[in-house]
Amino acid sequence: MPNNQTQRLTHGAMMIAIFAILIAIAYYVPIISLVATLFAPLPIAWFSAKYDRSSSIILGVIGCIITFFFGGLLILPFSMIFAVCGVVMGDALRTNKSKAYLFMATGISVLITFAIQYLISIKLFETDFIKESFQLMRESYMASFEFAESLTGEQPMTEEAFNLMFQHIEIAIPASVTLAAFFLSFLLITVNLPILKRLGITVPKFQAFKDLRLPRTILWIYLIVLTIQLFVRPELGTSLYVITFNFSLVLWVLLTIQGISFLHFVLDAYRAPKFLKGLATIFAIPLYNFVMLLGILDLGFDIRSFVTGKIRK
Question: Most exposed among 88, 169, 205, 223, judged by the fewest C-beta atoms under 10 Å?
Answer without folding.
Answer: 205
